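The passage that follows is intended for readers who have already worked through the single-chain material. We present the inputs for a multi-component assembly, then the predicted structure in tokenized form, and finally a short commentary. You are encouraged to pause after the input and sketch how you expect the pieces to fit together before reading on.
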Amino acid sequence: MKQKTLESLFHDGLRDIYYAERKILKALTQLGRGAESEEAKSAFQTHKEETEGQIARLEQIFEMMDKRPRGKTCPAIDGIIEEGEEILEEFKGGPALDAGLIAAAQAVEHYEIARYGTLKRWATVLGMNDAAQLLDETLKEEYATDEKLTKLADDDANRHAVAAE
Amino acid sequence: MKQKTLESLFHDGLRDIYYAERKILKALTQLGRGAESEEAKSAFQTHKEETEGQIARLEQIFEMMDKRPRGKTCPAIDGIIEEGEEILEEFKGGPALDAGLIAAAQAVEHYEIARYGTLKRWATVLGMNDAAQLLDETLKEEYATDEKLTKLADDDANRHAVAAE
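Having made your guess, compare it with the prediction:
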């Protein structure tokens, strides 16, 4: 059996997040359709467009490694998205729907922040500086999206939910 | 049907993270046993002790709400932990094991950061200031643990993994 090195860990991680990003792309479409306010709809739409760019960056990294871009089932993102779908179903039509959907999206963001942070550090240690640079660009976008969602929750969705009670 | 308000969203979220924390407690025992280096073992052990305190804080909040502490299955944490177990199995005996386990633990941390951040903001909007204070204490611990794990990866596990290749 081939020894499992940091390079194989990096490749596995890349496949994990590649699968995750494509699931996230679909989930963001659902969130955008389900959200009540225009602000939330638009935030999910913007992040969807960003996600397309993030997938393209991952494909560039696979290419740098001479690997075919291929996902690997990621039970973590499946579970995180499942919880978002539950909220969509249970809170539909109620005042707290957008607050719940924003929370679901932030759980997705933090999954990505954890994974991209790790992958970037592994790429650096492996001397793959171009890959590290691409991963860092995505990481910065994820942090910015998370902050934007916090602001949207604070300024709008949470107050709306509580005012309706 | 009772309308689903921000308070019910908060209560559901509390039950979700209560379930998650108890699963994390078991997972940290596994990670601590599986890790190769003393530094990683000790980091997982410390976080295990912290997790016990975090569970106690959640129980205090249930009590403030006159609710019995009860978990709610959280597919997200189940998936995140499943990925950690895969790494433990696949990378056992190899040089990249600890790097992989630290990454798994950081995915757990970020799930907690997302959830505690949201719950803290909901508690504030709901006027539950004592609960918000407790959630903030846990949130700060999660951020500190995540930073500690990044440092452990950078200083030790990732270099060890790559030096062995």
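Commentary: Residues 129-163 of chain B form the longest helix (35 residues). The mean pLDDT of chain B is 94. How closely did your sketch match?
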